[in-house]
From TrEMBL:
The lineage of its organism: Bacteria, Bacillati, Actinomycetota, Actinomycetes, Pseudonocardiales. The keyword Nucleotide-binding applies. Belongs to the GlnE family. This is Bifunctional glutamine synthetase adenylyltransferase/adenylyl-removing enzyme. Coiled coil: none annotated. InterPro entries: GlnE, GlnE_rpt_dom, NT_sf, PII_UdlTrfase/GS_AdlTrfase. Involved in the regulation of glutamine synthetase GlnA, a key enzyme in the process to assimilate ammonia. When cellular nitrogen levels are high, the C-terminal adenylyl transferase (AT) inactivates GlnA by covalent transfer of an adenylyl group from ATP to specific tyrosine residue of GlnA, thus reducing its activity. Conversely, when nitrogen levels are low, the N-terminal adenylyl removase (AR) activates GlnA by removing the adenylyl group by phosphorolysis, increasing its activity. PANTHER family: BIFUNCTIONAL GLUTAMINE SYNTHETASE ADENYLYLTRANSFERASE_ADENYLYL-REMOVING ENZYME, GLUTAMINE SYNTHETASE ADENYLYLTRANSFERASE. It is an enzyme of class 2 (transferase). It catalyses: [glutamine synthetase]-L-tyrosine + ATP = [glutamine synthetase]-O(4)-(5'-adenylyl)-L-tyrosine + diphosphate; [glutamine synthetase]-O(4)-(5'-adenylyl)-L-tyrosine + phosphate = [glutamine synthetase]-L-tyrosine + ADP.
Length: 996
């Protein structure tokens, strides 16, 4: 029992592992033979909560031994004053270097006993007082005495900052100061040291009375941004006027005094670096930056801030560089230069340390700083709110202004603060400049570091393990967001917009719009004002996006129409939370959207009703790579789940709209060839018919309460049958039925007709989308014949009454919906009709030729250029299709390879069979594919189906661009190309189709 009691009262209970701990505690009067002294429990508890209890106790022992007389009052204060207790013990358990200062400076611990531990307003006065020869005098100590006095004053104030920063980890009643407050205090202390160092330098060089020796000290880097570490070089630039030799001596002396006392003063960021003059005049700086400065120097100047010396000269310097800094983004390759510089810095980190390097490694502090500075320099030209030298303030402004997503900005701030806190605790240990996170194997170091930060064990994991996991998580987050923001394609586009173009509401902007090619710049400015008016976040993001979008639209065939479309889309999607975020964060999306809006009238109309497709624009694989069969399967499954016919048709329309827009977007962007486009459009049309037919059958069965009276099959004809639909094509179909067993044919036909009418009417309802017109005019007897026939009725009709044109139409028939078995029997039956035994005799061939001539003469619109009609014009779709179909009618019976509904496939089969010269087939195929592409392009450009190629104007330019013509090429060249291809094909048609 006695041993158990002693174990319970062991120093190990308070986190001590050193064998000397009990002796040290006894010597301090905090431990007795029976265990902890009751009046000292608060002290022991505070020691147990420190980062390293053994270190804290050991340093207290050193203080006791070095100042026995002062120990009594310190021990009493530790017992009675929780503020002092928390601050002092937290420092001693974290920083051996500050403990050394306390040991060597008896009584300095009293700094920590005040209600407010540190006051930045007094830093400069305190350090100046420390180096003065006497109160009220401008004269200071010089040489080593001055350096020693400055060092002692600096360390004392640094102790106050560290104690205020760390105290909450030991004493919960102490508040944790914000990270920015700590860095602000460290920066204020550095500024005070520079001021005191300059005062010493003036005394050493007797320059107090030298009116012609003006020197301004400009802080750069972290000091300029008010975000210094505990141990940092302080980057400065010196600006002088008057006696430059004296001013240079003053700068050198200040660097020596401060460097020997407090921290290294680094002037390497000055013009020409270490090889350049230490001090330059304001005019000298101006001339250098205008002529010789490189991109990284402008980036560094973003944080320039006067901190010591001649205030007016410092103000003039910052005013001078300010205009240059915020114009730097317009330099050629500016964004690429900044990105390349970050990659160079990263390469210099040894690979074995890259994952532990807090500052320069992947996911380190520089990732955040480079990303923030690049965004500032690009967007800050037009938004003064972004012009802060502080990384955290700039992040806040970027998030508030919409340049960075709120969540992204918040995550970066949290992760940046975490890494900076880790860096601070590492540096406090020995007051050495370090940025290297402990190795995972250094468990003791990780434990102490975690406790210094305030991290506790959780869920069976030690504090060190939790810290390591947090370090990795924050590093991965920073790297992900860095790559998202720093390499954002939109940055280069914004940077390339001239400064004056960013001021969108001025008269200069109207002139620029006119110069860019906007036909109605006043109207464009109205759209701009509508999009950017107000102070909402949405308006801020639009203000950042519009300069880029205006430039991108200027490169499209119709900038004015594109801007109007952009306004309509933006207003329609104003409440869609991700819309502007996608445009801001995905440069490729902006570029592609601008091209589509300035080229197509169909896309904007679809986009406002299917906005989700916008998110696919940044991923060409997802945009163009979907398998039509998978799309059709998904549509059928969705439609099948709907509760009724109307809901099923609405779902089918919605999914078709999505697919139309996806395919149209991929088509416009050149990501899908014409055959894939036609296949995808045909597949989605077939799926819509399948879903609508199934829904109509369910509705009919629900109304009658009986099982279906007949089987129904839908046969695709024309372009639907050939899987060659365009954006505006109707669905040519035949409806076939067969009464179920025991049901009279009349009842079966009535049932099937009702279902077919229901499908046609439901799909044919007016809509803003391209129409869903089901056309059954190719049925026997045309519009005058019954909508639905039985299989046997079709067989009888074709055997007795059908004409040659009907056999020709059946060449493209294929089963697409309904009963599989009935559809297969119909296809087998019509094979006898469309692939006639023995082919065609001479009279039948002449009849086909007469039919084609009559159709071409009667149906092509009068007054139009026949050479530019994609369907019936010279070398157009009809020319090629009639030629192919004539050969199929003549030879498909003996050549099964010709039994295809696809025109290009039939051409290939004719070549392989030796029935057509390969060069002729190539000419026909090229013309057919070109006419199909042009027909689709006209629909995309005009938003309505037209068979005529535009002869001039913006529509022609847009069609030419869709087909791949360069922006600067003459659209007339495209017309010449179209005529050449179709003329060559027509020559083949004249020879192959019309010659015996």
């Amino acid at each position: 029992m006695a041993e158990q009691a002693r174990g319970a009262a062991s120093p190990a209970r308070y986190g001590f592992t050193d064998d000397r701990a009990e002796a040290q505690l006894r010597a301090a009067g905090w431990w007795t033979d029976t265990g902890p002294a009751p009046e000292c429990l608060d002290v022991l508890s505070a020691l147990s909560r420190s980062a390293d209890p053994d270190l804290a106790l050991r340093e207290l022992e050193r203080i006791r031994e070095s100042d026995p007389e002062g120990w009594t009052s310190l021990a009493a204060a530790l017992r009675d004053d929780p503020n002092l207790r928390g601050r002092l013990i937290s420092v001693l358990g974290t920083s051996s270097a500050l403990a050394d200062f306390l040991v060597g400076s008896p009584g300095e611990w009293k700094r920590l006993a005040h209600d407010k531990c540190t006051d930045t307003d007094c830093y400069a006065d305190e350090l100046l007082t420390a180096v003065r020869t006497e109160p009220g005098s401008e004269a200071t100590l010089t040489g080593t005495p001055a350096e020693q006095a400055l060092r002692a004053g600096y360390r004392g104030l640094l102790l106050e900052i560290a104690a205020a920063d760390l105290g909450h980890t030991v004493e919960q009643r102490l508040d944790r100061p914000p990270y920015t407050e700590v860095t602000g205090q460290l920066t204020a202390l550095a500024e005070a040291a520079l001021i005191a160092g300059l005062a010493v330098a003036r005394t050493e060089h007797k320059a107090h009375e030298a009116e012609d020796a003006r020197l301004a000290v400009i802080a750069m880097g972290k000091c300029g941004g008010r975000e210094l570490n505990y141990v940092s070089d302080v980057d400065v630039i010196f600006v002088g006027e008057g006696d430059l030799q004296l001013v240079t001596r003053l700068a050198s002396a200040m660097m020596r005094v401060v460097g020997n006392s407090c921290f290294e003063v680094d002037a390497a960021l000055r013009p020409e670096g270490k090889a350049g003059a230490l001090v330059r005049t304001l005019d000298g700086h101006t001339a250098y930056y205008k002529k010789w400065a490189r991109t990284w120097e402008y980036q560094a100047l973003l944080k320039a801030r006067p901190v010591a010396g001649d205030k007016e000269l410092g103000r003039q310097y910052v005013e001078m560089v300010d205009s240059m800094v915020w114009a730097a983004a317009e330099r050629e390759n500016f964004v690429a230069d900044v990105q390349q510089m970050r990659r160079r810095v990263e390469k210099h980190v040894p690979s074995e340390l890259a994952e532990r390097e807090l500052k320069l490694g992947r996911g380190g502090l520089r990732d955040v700083e480079f990303a923030v500075q690049l965004l500032q320099l690009v967007h800050g030209r037009a938004d003064p709110e972004l012009r802060s030298p502080s990384t955290m303030d700039a992040l806040d402004a970027l998030g508030a202004g919409g340049y960075v997503g709120r969540a992204d900005a918040a995550e970066l701030e949290v992760s940046y603060e975490f890494l900076r806190t880790v860096e601070h605790r590492l540096q406090l240990r020995r007051l050495r400049r370090t940025h290297l996170f402990p190795d995972a194997s250094e468990t003791a170091e990780l434990r102490v570091l975690a406790r210094a930060i305030g991290i506790k064990p959780e869920r069976g994991r030690s504090a060190g393990d939790v810290l390591l996991a947090e370090f990795r998580r924050h590093g991965q987050r920073i790297r992900r967001l860095h790559e998202k923001l720093f390499y954002r394609p939109l940055l280069q586009s914004v940077a390339s917009v001239p400064m004056e173009a960013l001021r969108l509401t001025t008269k200069q902007a109207a002139r620029r719009l006119a110069a860019l090619g906007y036909a109605a710049p006043d109207g464009a400015l109205q759209h701009i004002r509508a999009l950017t008016s107000g102070v909402s976040r949405r308006a801020s993001i639009q203000h950042a996006l519009l300069p880029v979008i205006l430039d991108l639209l200027a490169d499209t065939p119709d900038p004015d129409g594109g801007l109007l479309a952009y306004r309509k889309v933006s207003e329609a999607l104003a409440e869609t939370p991700w819309y502007l975020r996608v445009l801001r964060d995905e440069g490729a999306v902006v570029e592609r959207l601008a091209f589509m809006l300035g080229t197509s009238k169909l896309v904007p109309d679809l986009l406002v009703r299917a906005p989700e497709v916008l998110q696919l624009l940044g991923d060409p694989t997802r945009l163009a790579g979907r398998d039509p069969a998978e799309v059709a399967k998904s549509l059928r499954a969705t439609v099948r789940r709907q509760p009724g016919l109307n809901a099923a048709v609405a779902a089918a329309r919605s999914l078709r709209r999505h697919e139309l827009l996806r395919v149209a977007s991929a088509d416009l962007l050149g990501l899908m060839d014409v055959r894939r486009v036609c296949e995808a459009l045909s597949s989605i049309w077939v799926a819509v018919l399948q879903g609508a037919l199934a829904a109509a059958l369910r509705k009919k069965n629900a109304e009658t309460g009986d099982s279906p009276l007949a089987k129904i099959a839908v046969i695709g004809m024309g372009r639907l049958g050939g899987a060659e639909l365009g954006y505006g094509s109707d669905a040519d179909v035949l409806f076939v039925c067969e009464a179920n067993e025991g049901v009279p044919d009349s009842d079966g036909i009535r049932f099937a007709s009702s279902v077919a009418e229901t499908v046609s009417q439901a799909l044919g309802q007016p809509s803003a989308d391209p129409p869903l017109h089901v056309d059954s005019d190719l049925r026997p007897e045309g519009r005058g014949g019954p909508l639905v026939r039985t299989l046997e009725s079709y067989r009888a009709y074709y055997a007795r009454w059908s004409e040659l044109w009907e056999a020709q139409a059946l060449l493209r028939a294929r089963f697409i919906a309904g009963d599989d078995e009935l559809g297969a029997r119909f296809i087998a039956m019509i094979d006898e009709i469309r692939y006639p035994d023995g082919g065609l005799d001479a009279a039948q061939v002449r009849e086909v030729r007469r039919m084609k001539a009559r159709v071409q003469a009667e149906r092509i619109p009068r007054g139009t250029d026949h050479t530019l009609n994609t369907k019936l014009g010279r070398g157009g779709l009809a020319d090629v299709e009639w030629t192919v179909q004539l050969e199929q009618l003549r030879h498909a019976r003996e050549l099964p390879a010709l039994r295809t509904t696809s025109t290009p496939d039939a051409l290939s089969a004719l070549t392989e069979a030796g029935l057509m010269d390969a060069a002729d087939a190539d000419s026909l195929s090229e013309a057919w594919l070109l006419a199909t592409r042009v027909r689709n392009a006209v629909m995309l450009v005009r938003g309505k189906a037209v068979d005529q190629v535009p002869g001039s104007g913006r529509d022609l330019a847009a069609v030419a661009r869709v087909l791949g013509q360069a922006e600067d090429d003459d659209p007339g060249e495209f017309l010449d190309f179209y005529r050449k291809v179709t003329r060559r094909a027509h020559t083949v048609v004249e020879r192959v189709f019309f010659e015996d």
